[in-house]
């Protein structure tokens, strides 16, 4: 049965241990700083809801052709972040299942059963990969505290007990399921850290400490982030029991990186889609504020906007190439091309800050200092704000101020700061994307071109 928005909100009342600003949050759906996030997710439930047994949302569709993949990506742009992570996380699990089926058919079957379980209950999942990691230069087994990487602390006939922490887990507090996967490749001897499983958020031992960029001030001053925000979860797994049917990896180090690689692919594809759309949004804001300032025909402004257009278009081109070159698994499931997906995500993320710089350069200082809409409405100072914030006939103060507030909110305030870091770190960080790109690039062909250009055959080098 699919859930309605109301049923989703009610489902959060399951005894989960959620913390914010040092306090336990007893009623997650009623917490003001989570309200926009839960309302966003609930509205997604209502938008897709169909009554009756056997119905399921489009976020559970498994793409069977590049066209399916494209259509799902177009839908994804309209989904809330929790629904996006659900679709990406479950597709990643299925991709891992396909890769493990030959040697571990039992795990593959459990993953498929879990997929059906989530689908039949219309559950929302987040991916819990990133560990605390302690001293980055040391492997899990050499850390002074073995819990710095999530690990199995007990094996029982009916399941396992896991301990550790998964950090930066977006929206963990307001979803149903944590899909836990190893943060990196584990080596022989590190079997206890090679663990993948699914854990309900309300399970005993799960504690989630939250941060949020949800505005704590006048909503009108934050036109974007007051509607679109998500808590970030610092997820503690304090000796959590996981029954066997929810364990997808238990010590098989050779498959420890399979989950993260599979997820990386889907997460970066979604990231590229958002970056392409976000690139167009930056272009739109730049053009609108240039027009509002009377500068749209000035050469250096046009030049910067042209560079932003090229950025948005190339990011989208990479996304299109990832879809057009999609591959098919033996099960008939389609997944995007690794090289184009990772190259598009890396390019879009690495250049994002430069595009924001262009936008700030074009817009001017009022990005930060435009008075609030309450100041505009003030009987005492409002007329002055109106007089000095307008620029010309057809550009009243309110119009221009709303543009400035949107630019500040999206690129230069709490949410803007969140975006700047997230672009760099999400999907495993830029370095992870460079590794995958190097692995999938046809280096032999590139070298042949180099040799031919130099008039060499390659035989010359000893
Ligand atoms: C807003 C946000 C949301 C996120 N959402 C999720 C989520 O939903 N689920 C999830 O699992 N993760 C999530 N992440 C985590 C994200 O994937 C990580 O931040 C990212 O993988 C980097 O890990 P880290 O933050 O621990 O940084 P670090 O691993 O400390 O990396 C910092 C820098 O050090 C480098 N480095 C680290 N170790 C080494 C080494 N051994 N040798 C050389 N260089 C090294 C890295 O390449 C990087 O340049 C999110 C992150 C953010 C910011």
From TrEMBL:
The keyword Flavoprotein applies. Residues 4-249 form the HpaB/PvcC/4-BUDH N-terminal domain. Residues 258-449 form the HpaB/PvcC/4-BUDH C-terminal domain. It comes from the Bacteria. InterPro entries: Acyl-CoA_Oxase/DH_mid-dom_sf, AcylCo_DH-like_C, AcylCoA_DH/oxidase_NM_dom_sf, HpaB/PvcC/4-BUDH, HpaB/PvcC/4-BUDH_C, HpaB/PvcC/4-BUDH_N. Keywords: FAD, Flavoprotein, Oxidoreductase. SUPFAM superfamilies: Acyl-CoA dehydrogenase C-terminal domain-like (SSF47203), Acyl-CoA dehydrogenase NM domain-like (SSF56645). Pfam families: HpaB, HpaB_N. PANTHER family: 4-HYDROXYPHENYLACETATE 3-MONOOXYGENASE-RELATED (PTHR36117:SF3). This is 4-hydroxyphenylacetate 3-hydroxylase N-terminal domain-containing protein. The lineage of its organism: Bacteria, Bacillati, Actinomycetota, Actinomycetes, Streptosporangiales.
């Amino acid at each position: 049965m699919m859930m309605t928005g109301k049923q989703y909100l009610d489902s959060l009342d399951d005894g989960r241990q959620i913390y914010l600003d040092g306090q336990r949050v007893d009623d997650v759906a009623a917490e003001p700083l989570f309200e926009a996030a839960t309302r966003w997710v609930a509205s997604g439930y209502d938008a897709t809801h169909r009554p009756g047994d056997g119905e399921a949302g489009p976020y559970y569709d498994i793409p069977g052709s590049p066209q399916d993949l494209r259509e799902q990506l177009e839908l994804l742009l309209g989904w809330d972040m929790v629904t996006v992570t659900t679709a990406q996380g479950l597709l990643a699990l299925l991709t891992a299942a396909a890769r493990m089926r030959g040697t571990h058919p039992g795990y593959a079957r459990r993953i498929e059963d879990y997929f059906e379980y989530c689908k039949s209950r219309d559950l929302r999942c987040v991916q819990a990969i990133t560990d605390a990691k302690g001293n980055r230069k040391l492997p899990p087994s050499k850390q002074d505290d073995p819990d710095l990487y999530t690990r199995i602390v007990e094996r029982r006939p009916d399941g396992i007990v896991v301990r550790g922490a998964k950090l930066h887990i977006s929206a963990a507090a307001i979803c149903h399921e944590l899909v836990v996967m190893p943060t990196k490749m584990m080596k022989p001897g590190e079997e206890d850290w090679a663990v993948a499983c699914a854990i309900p958020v309300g399970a005993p031992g799960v504690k989630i400490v939250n941060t949020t960029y949800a505005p704590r001030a006048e909503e009108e001053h934050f036109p974007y982030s007051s509607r679109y925000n998500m808590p970030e979860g610092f997820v503690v797994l304090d000796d959590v029991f996981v029954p066997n049917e929810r364990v997808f990896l238990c010590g098989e180090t050779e498959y420890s990186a399979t989950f993260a690689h599979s997820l990386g692919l889907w997460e970066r594809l979604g990231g590229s889609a958002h970056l392409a759309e976000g690139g167009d949004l930056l272009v739109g804001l730049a053009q609108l504020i240039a027009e509002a300032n009377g500068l749209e025909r000035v050469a250096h402004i046009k030049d910067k906007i042209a560079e932003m257009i090229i950025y948005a278009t190339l990011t989208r081109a990479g996304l299109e190439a990832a879809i057009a070159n999609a591959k098919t698994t033996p099960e008939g499931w389609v997944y995007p091309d690794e090289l184009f997906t990772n190259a598009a995500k890396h390019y879009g993320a690495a250049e994002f800050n430069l595009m924001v710089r262009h936008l700030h350069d074009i817009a001017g200082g009022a990005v930060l200092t435009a008075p609030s809409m309450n100041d505009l409405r003030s009987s005492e100072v409002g007329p002055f704000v109106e007089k000095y914030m307008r620029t010309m006939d057809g550009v009243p103060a309110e119009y221009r101020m709303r543009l400035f507030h949107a630019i500040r909110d999206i690129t230069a305030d709490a949410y803007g700061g969140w975006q700047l870091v997230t672009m760099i770190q999400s999907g495993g960080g830029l370095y992870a994307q460079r590794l995958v790109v190097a692995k999938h690039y046809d280096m032999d062909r590139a070298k042949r071109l180099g040799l031919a250009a130099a008039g060499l055959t390659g035989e010359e080098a000893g």
